[in-house]
Amino acid sequence: MTIGSKIRYHRMKKKLTQEELATGILSVSYLSKIENNQTTASSEVIELLCKRLGIELLQENDEALKKTFSDWNKALLRNDLEEAVRLFELVSGHVIQIDDINLLNSYHILMIRYHILLKEFEQPREIIASLEKSYKGLSDRLRFYFHKFAGNFCYIQGQFEKANNHLVEAEHYFVLGNIIDHEEKADLFYLKSLTLVQLRKHALAIHYSEESLALYQSLYHNKRCAEIHLLLGVCFRRIQNIKEAITHYEWANEISINTGYSSLRGKVEQNLGYLKSMDNRTEDAIAHYLKSLQFKHEDQNSKLTTILSLVKEYYKLKRFDEVMQWLQEGIHLSLQENNKEKYYEFRIYEFAVEKLDEEFEHFMKTEALPYFENTGNPHLLAQYSKFLGTYYQEIRKYKYAAHYLTKANVAYEKIIGL
Q1: How far is CA 282 from the centre of its chain?
Q2: pLDDT tens digit string along 301-354?
Q3: Nearest CA to 211 among 229, 189, 192, 226?
Q4: Which residues touch 56 (CB under 8 Å, ≥6 apart)?
Q5: C-alpha distance across the termini of the chain, in Å
Q6: Across the chain, which distance is largest between two alpha carbons, in Å?
Q7: Angle ∠(388,389,393) on CA atoms, nearest 5
Q8: Where are the alpha helices (DSSP H) in 239-319?
Q9: Buried b / exposed e across 227-241, counting CB within 10 Å, b at 16+?
Q10: Distance CA 416, CA 126 (A)
């Protein structure tokens, strides 16, 4: 937007006539020529017009904001909350004066990521919906950031297919927008690998993880390298390449120790416990899970995952006192964190320990299984439909057993893509 167009924009925004703005500064006809970009005004005239409009000098204001937006984006990219908040406070007071549509769109797009960083998840949905209406006006560069941040938001919301669709578009516009930034590319590929793991597309997840890892290694971003090694360990574990999985877990553990990344150590111990559980080394699995809890002081949802793992291992050993001890803590914490998924799993094991009866049947049919189905979680739907079907087999209700075992098989087929 040219200076003349900006003056016209702010004049109309202030609901001033040309005569009201021009009085004592220049003629109305000359102002009209400036607004229609038919002539270039002197810096003195521009300064006087800006002063009357109550705005900063337009050229300087745009360049300063562009630099601040760039710095703000870097802070958001690096999850630097303190710096991101400082820069937001710096730019927010100038937003009302922004007259460049690209800058205004940049601000709204960056706000998606800013709200995510602050764990404010209602606002991004509204911003994304608004930007979709003006999507045609976005440059290729802005489309990259829009899709990347929208993909990030969808991932957090558990909408993994939708997240992947956005990230595919982001990769496309990364090229079209001619964005030459290794850190942005590394972050995009890391987001893609996280999403692909959730979609169980492990070959692709490994590809993007390794690409991202190489970029982060070149940037000496050790903590993110540790996170990617953990992610690769999960991928290789799921495709039964246990040797490669352990190698990546060990790398993740070593880097997390050297960098003091204690929360990641908790996740590494969690995954090592899962490996031992798969190998039916239950006591070893419990040892890893207990060690994992030592590093999970703040991440309550991650703590719930470990508590549930302990419940399952102690249940295998029929050590029901320990099961009930961890169940009580798990149910309390899942209610506190409003984690319905974990709450339902804990309740199922509570019924399994205390009594499987008509109340259990009602709970499974009207609460737990519908929740797993409605939230698009075929793994839990398969696991607990099978649990209910087996229960019906044992009490000789074969019609119900067949129904829920079939439901489990359908869910398993969805998982493996049949």
Answers
A1: 33
A2: 899 999 999 999 999 999 999 999 999 999 999 999 999 999 999 999 999 999
A3: 189
A4: 50, 94, 97
A5: 53
A6: 96
A7: 115
A8: 242-259, 262-278, 282-293, 300-316
A9: bbbbbbbbbbbeeeb
A10: 35
| Structure token pair of residue 318 | 């029929």
Q: Which amino acid is at 58?
A: L
Complete domains list, the chain, with CATH: 3-55 (1.10.260.40), 58-180 (1.25.40.10)
The candidate with the shortest Cα–Cα distance to 154, out of 186, 185, 132, is: 132
Indicate the residue type of 212.
Answer: S
CB-facing half-sphere around the CA of 413: CA atoms within 13 A? 7
Q: How many CA atoms lie within 13 A of 373 on its CB side?
A: 14
Question: Residue 267 has which token pair?
Answer: 């996740």
Residue-wise pLDDT for 174-223, tens only, equals 999 999 999 999 999 999 999 999 998 999 999 999 999 999 999 999 99
DSSP state of 135: G
- Distance of alpha carbon 68 from alpha carbon 66, whole angstroms: 5
Cα angle value 189/191/192 (rounded, 5°): 60
Which SS3 state, helix, strand or coil, does residue 57 take? coil
Phi, psi values for residue 94, rounded to 5°: -100, -5
Spatial neighbors of 167 by CB under 8 A, at least 6 apart, are: 147, 148, 151, 188, 191, 192, 195
Distance CA 410, CA 297 (A): 38
Token pair 């019924």 is found at 351
For residue 122, give both structure tokens: 């209602």
The number of C-alpha atoms within 13 Å of 51 and in the hemisphere containing its C-beta is: 8
- What is the SS3 assignment for 126? helix
Residue that the structure tokens 């870097």 belong to: 74
CA 398, chain centre distance (Å)? 43
Q: What pTM does this model have? A: 0.75
